């Protein structure tokens, strides 16, 4: 599978689209706003003449939805109230893979005006926005030209799916309970390789004194399969696919040869790689939890929480956390009709059966 072509969120603004179903990552953007604000202050502090500056900000893996608007308007808002406004100009680059719905991105930029109208009384700096298709596992910018890299919920995607060892991960699509340890190692090594490359590329593109704010969908502990982590969700998706194999709607061989180009790292894995690279200083790391249910704002992440409406929760997890994100990839591998369409009624029932809707 060629990831650059096959991986993209569901475009447009229909019921199944990422734009309509991206409240879960939105929670992460809200949570990390103070960190982004601190990063901007750090960049200003490092500028020799902040009153005459052009600041370049890149959102890597922006997708097509309201979250990238939140990032752009958030940065504009922070700078508007920073006291550094005079003669400040901002250049935003919105990056994603070429299959991303950039038309939706460009159309939605007009909503920035409404967001600005909500910020009463403050002037805003002139800003310019450009789309940038390409993989963040390649060079995207000229040498030392970017002040701030932001990336949220994107770096857990790999540049390639791990092919060697897939036959030994039969019935799974990610690291599951039955996955042999050397296959787990393959997933880990691919993450190490990709993230080290990412760090090396960004270190060339970042200006001296620049900052990166990176948010991963990750694991809260070093344990590979903690109940409620994202691995549980991919196990349920694998189970849904196994049922389709039993019903003859998906070929067994197609399931055997499918491994998600994904790895959810722990915070220690991320910080160790940054330290090993010697390319960046870590100013802040943090872990936060959120419920898998996009409409549940509690930070529950334990097995004892009770969800008021389990059926509704299961449906929104299936739509928001799974379908809007993974349907194009599944359709690319298994075929449009045989997999993604008939998978949708199966997933909520499996989620309900497993009680995942009670966990984050
Ligand atoms: C779950 S979405 C998150 C989007 C957005 N940042 C948000 O918070 O809502 C992850 C995005 O990362 C993009 N992505 C994955 N791998 C990428 C790569 N190598 N280069 C650029 N974008 C990538 C995907 O296409 C997808 O749009």
Overall structural class, as computed from helix and strand content, comes to: alpha/beta
CATH topology: Rossmann fold
Strand content: 5-15%
* Termini separation: 30 Å
N-to-C series of helices and strands: HHHEHEHHEEHEHHHHHH
Protein name: Jasmonate O-methyltransferase
Keywords: Magnesium, Metal-binding
Organism: Oryza meridionalis
GO molecular function, one term: methyltransferase activity
Write a compact overview of the structure shown.
The protein is of the alpha/beta class.
Describe the overall structure.
- There is one protein chain.
- With 360 residues, the chain is α/β, with parallel strands linked by helices.
- The protein has one domain: Vaccinia Virus protein VP39 (Rossmann fold).
- Helix content is 43%, strand content 11%.
- It has 13 helices and 5 strands.
- It has helices at residues 3-6, 23-31, 33-46, 66-80, 102-108, 111-117, 181-205, 230-246, 252-256, 267-277, 310-334, 336-343, 346-354, and strands at residues 54-60, 89-96, 127-133, 146-152, 206-215.
- A 5-stranded parallel beta sheet has the order 3-2-1-4-5.
- Helix 3 (33-46) crosses helix 4 (66-80) and helix 7 packs across helix 10 (267-277).
- The model has no long low-confidence stretch (mean pLDDT 82).
- Bound molecules: S-adenosylmethionine (SAM).
- S-adenosylmethionine binds at residues 7-9, 22, 25, 29, 60-63, 65, 67, 95-97, 100, 135-137, 152-154, 157, 159, 325.
- Pfam families: Methyltransf_7.
- This is Jasmonate O-methyltransferase.
- Keywords: Magnesium, Metal-binding.
- GO terms for molecular function: metal ion binding; methyltransferase activity.
């Amino acid at each position: 599978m060629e990831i650059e072509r096959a991986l993209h969120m569901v475009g447009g603004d229909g019921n199944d689209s990422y734009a309509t179903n991206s409240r879960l990552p939105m929670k992460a953007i809200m949570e990390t706003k103070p960190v982004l604000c601190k990063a901007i202050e750090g960049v200003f502090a490092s500028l020799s003449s902040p009153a005459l500056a052009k600041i370049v900000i890149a959102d890597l893996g922006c997708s097509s939805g309201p979250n990238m608007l939140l990032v752009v308007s958030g940065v504009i808002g922070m700078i508007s109230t920073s006291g550094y406004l005079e003669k400040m100009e901002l250049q935003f680059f919105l990056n994603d893979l070429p299959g991303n719905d950039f038309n939706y991105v460009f159309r939605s930029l007009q909503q920035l005006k409404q967001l600005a109208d909500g910020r009463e009384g403050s002037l805003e700096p002139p800003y310019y926005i450009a789309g940038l298709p390409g993989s963040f596992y390649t060079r995207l910018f000229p040498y030392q030209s970017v002040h701030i890299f932001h990336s949220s919920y994107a770096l857990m995607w790999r540049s390639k799916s791990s092919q060697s060892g897939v036959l030994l991960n039969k019935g799974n699509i990610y690291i599951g309970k039955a996955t042999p340890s050397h296959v787990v190692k393959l997933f880990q090594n691919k993450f190490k390789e990709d993230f080290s490359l990412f760090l090396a590329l960004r270190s060339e593109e970042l200006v001296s004194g620049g900052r990166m704010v990176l948010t991963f969908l990750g694991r809260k502990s070093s344990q590979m399969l903690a109940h409620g982590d994202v691995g549980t969700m991919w196990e349920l998706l694998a189970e849904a696919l196994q049922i389709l194999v039993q019903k003859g709607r998906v070929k067994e061989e197609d399931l055997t040869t499918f491994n998600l180009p994904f790895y959810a790292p722990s915070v220690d894995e991320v910080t160790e790689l940054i330290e090993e690279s010697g390319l960046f200083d870590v100013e802040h790391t943090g872990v936060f939890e959120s419920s898998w249910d996009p409409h549940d704002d509690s930070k529950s992440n334990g097995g004892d929480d009770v969800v008021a409406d389990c059926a509704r929760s299961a449906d929104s997890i299936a739509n928001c956390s799974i379908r809007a994100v993974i349907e194009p990839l599944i359709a690319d591998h298994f075929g449009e009709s045989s997999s993604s369409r008939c998978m949708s009624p199966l997933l909520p029932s499996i989620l309900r059966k497993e009680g995942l809707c009670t966990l984050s």
